[in-house]
Write a structure and sequence with these properties.
Blueprint: E1 4-10, E2 18-21, E3 32-37, E4 40-53, E5 65-68, H1 71-97, E6 103-109, E7 115-121, H2 129-139, E8 142-147, H3 150-157, H4 181-186, H5 193-196, H6 211-218, E9 227-230, E10 233-241, E11 246-250, E12 256-260, H7 261-280, H8 295-307, H9 311-325, H10 348-351
Parallel strand pairs: 7-8
Antiparallel strand pairs: 1-2, 1-4, 3-4, 3-5, 6-7, 9-10, 10-11, 11-12
Helix pairs in contact: 1-2
């Protein structure tokens, strides 16, 4: 099965890497080649060695390497670099004359000189149509204006960071990773914008380098303000040194001490083992000797059981007898003072017990009494 030879090529220092078909060329890292791009021919550097992949895994719109760069190609690249400086100065003059709120960063000539790209930064959208007409009449070629961000500006311009070294983005950092203030908090840095911001005015890219390491080391340490067992008492965690795996504790008597995380874990493990042992050990219970009752006590107890009757049963029997035997005559409900005639059976209404007229409690309200009622 046929395979493709893919090589990684970059056009700028610390720029993005693009894949090209190497065809039958033998290329090594650092070689200069002429490739075909969407914008035309360009001079690039080999940053990744050749690798073989099947044709089905090839990226779409794959371009090929035209040839290995020769001395004439390098001379043309140097000539274009000098022309870029002159084009940038001329464009800056035109921007100043028109009082346009934009900052020019760089001018770039294509390898064959068919187009000039001007990179600029601005807060909003800029109408540069008249500016493009002036540039096209002066240079007699195509003009393209590209608006970029502040990070891309720092990458193109370069500079020295707060660490005293050259900026990471213009030396080896090819892609920008997202950075947040949470990374600075995790590493215990002062949240001062001047100290945690780079030349571009955004958060330092190096904050993301050690963020995962700090998260792994912080898992073994308690948070500040948490109370942990220390010796026979408890202590409060005041500060934590993540890299040294140490913490500062404040005891109950006010003393402060520095403890390593391993020593604190050993103390916690021993305390937990003692608790488990104390739970697993059975408690010794003192059993009193059982005294056997005498024969006389057993006989007297049996006699009591035979003669004794539960009071509740007697009460139930007595109440049942009374309900069966005693029946009070019921007066008829025709007239309140008149007795029922003999021989007539009392009606169901007469058998009903009379209800007592209970006085209902007066309903209280939260309304205050008016002065007239009082």
């Amino acid at each position: 099965m046929d395979t493709l030879n893919i090589v990684g090529i970059s056009f700028h220092t610390a720029g993005k890497i693009f894949d090209f078909d190497a065809r039958d060329f033998e290329l090594n890292r650092g070689d200069q080649v002429i490739v075909e791009t969407e914008r035309g021919r360009a001079l690039g550097y080999v940053v990744r060695e050749i690798r073989q992949i099947p044709p089905g895994e090839a990226p779409p719109k794959l371009k090929a390497v035209l040839r290995i760069a020769v001395d004439s190609d390098r001379v043309m690249a140097q000539t274009n670099a000098q022309r870029e400086i002159e084009a940038l100065k001329f464009c800056q003059q035109r921007v100043a004359e028109r009082n346009m709120e934009m900052k020019l960063v760089r001018a770039e000539y294509l390898f064959d000189g068919s187009k000039i790209l001007f990179y600029f930064t601005a807060d909003g959208r800029i109408d540069f149509r008249e500016l493009v007409r002036d540039l096209a009449q002066h240079f007699r070629t195509r003009i393209e204006m590209r608006q970029i961000g502040v990070r891309d500006e720092a990458k193109l311009v370069g500079g020295i960071g707060v660490c005293g070294r050259e900026l990471c983005c213009c030396t080896y950092l090819r892609n920008f990773a997202p950075v947040s203030v949470k990374m600075a908090k995790t590493q215990g840095l002062a949240l001062n914008p001047t100290k945690i911001s780079g030349q571009c005015g955004r958060l330092l890219c190096c904050l993301a380098y050690e963020y995962e390491t700090y998260n792994e080391l912080r898992k073994n340490l308690p948070k500040c303000g948490k109370k942990v067992p220390y010796g026979s008492a408890t202590a409060e965690v005041i500060s934590v040194d993540i890299l040294a795996q140490k913490m500062t504790l404040r005891c109950e008597n006010g003393d402060r001490c520095v403890v390593k995380a391993d020593d604190l874990e050993k103390g916690l493990d021993s305390a937990s083992q003692e608790q488990t042992q104390s739970k697993s050990e059975p408690r010794a219970s003192v059993q009193e000797p059982v005294k056997e009752p005498s024969r006389e006590e057993v006989e007297s107890k049996n006699e009591r059981r035979g003669t004794r009757h539960p009071a509740s049963r007697n009460r139930n029997r007595r109440s049942g007898d009374q309900t069966k035997t005693e029946k009070k005559p019921v007066q008829s409900a025709k007239e309140p003072g008149e007795a029922a005639p003999t021989g007539e059976k009392p009606t169901a209404e007469a058998n009903r017990p009379r209800r007592r007229n209970r006085r209902r409690p007066r309903r209280r309200t939260n309304k205050p009494n008016s002065p007239e009622e009082g």
